[in-house]
Amino acid sequence: MATDLDLAERSVLGSVLLSNGKILDELDFNPADYHHPIYETVHRTCQAMKTAGKPVDVVTVMGELTAAGERYDPAMLHQAVTDTPVWENADYYAGIVADAATGRRLISAGAKAKQLVDAGGDMPEIVEVVRKDIDNAQSSARAQPVEFLADTLPGTIDMLDSEVTAIPTPWPSMNELITGLLPGAVYVVGARPGVGKSVVAVQLAQTLVAQGAVAFVSLEMNRDDVNMRLMSSELEINMNKLMNRELDERDWQKVSAWLRTASERPLAVLDKPGATITDIKRFVRSVSRRKPLAGVVVDYLQLMNPPTGDKRPRHEFVSAMSRELKILALDMNVPVIVLSQLNRGSTNREDSRPQISDLRESGAIEQDADVVLLLHREFPGDKQYEIGMAVAKNRRGRTGSLTAEFRGWYSRIDEATA
């Protein structure tokens, strides 16, 4: 007995045949959504014939299928044409078929989840696999509603009439270049070891935490190190005194007062060496469930580990992680600050200042970043307390550079005084 789905599938195919393939140009439909494999084969054959400029009807399609050696029932094509009520309603029929396909994929995702759980394994990775299966359950061919300029301009005008949502960085001259930290944007901070990447990371986290929760992923420092850098920066206590446990009475008074306001700084630290992208996503989502998320900091990209069994070359893996972090920024609608190592190419140049091409292991980092900030210091010399901060890429504005004051003993960088 035929079901509504059977009729809908035949009606999609019948619409293609009755319209001489014209409906293929208008139909948002993935042939993989058919429940019957032979329908998918026929549909793809029709698409190929339309692309080749051949007529698409029952007779020509039968000839094409026969020539290709496909096994099919000719009566099926005739029935598809006969059963189609109105071929102009093909998009409606396609929606029924697509919804049914989504349901099948969800059922499959549930069965796969049970199978993975029963087999044991790393639970966070299982959650991420199942989450992707669910996200991919809906047919990719079902397009978003089409909106023309007249439809979208009112929203743009409203945005222009509102305040900028960017969160200012600690450096006014930097804000003149990049405006600030914008939702959904990725900010890559690149430097060679010891120049000040982690100092920048902590300062930007301090800026973000004034607006909401911050998920700080530290793959190099443990949470105590991060906390001490925060204290050093905010309380102006020398890092050496903190590291060597040499606080005097005045320092302890500062720390005690600071502790009483700790709840005003919802900064959460993941200090798991070799964390995977699954670990990072799970951590970020956990933080966002506790408090409204203001931003994410990852220190640093090249220390992320591939999932178990991932055999991709290192540069391919880093490229994939760069893209995953960009998607995370868009999904969570917050700025994501990503620290990155530089290769040693700049050390062999006469001008040792880093260039965007020095980003280590992947050109995809440059591609995915909205802003690339490169840090540079001279060692040793009179300028060792100066730090160059160059905006090498700015998707939304101009590039440029500034010189700031590096105060490493307080784990901070300050705007240079005139």
From TrEMBL:
Catalytic reaction equation(s): ATP + H2O = ADP + phosphate + H(+)
Family statement: Belongs to the helicase family. DnaB subfamily.
Name the UniProt record assigns to this protein: DNA 5'-3' helicase
One GO CC annotation: cytosol
EC number: 5.6.2.3
Keyword DNA-binding annotated: yes
Keyword terms of this UniProt record: ATP-binding, DNA replication, DNA-binding, Helicase, Hydrolase, Isomerase, Nucleotide-binding
Recorded GO MF terms: 5'-3' DNA helicase activity; ATP binding; DNA binding; hydrolase activity
Keyword Nucleotide-binding: yes
Organism per entry: Galactobacter caseinivorans
Pfam family, one: DnaB
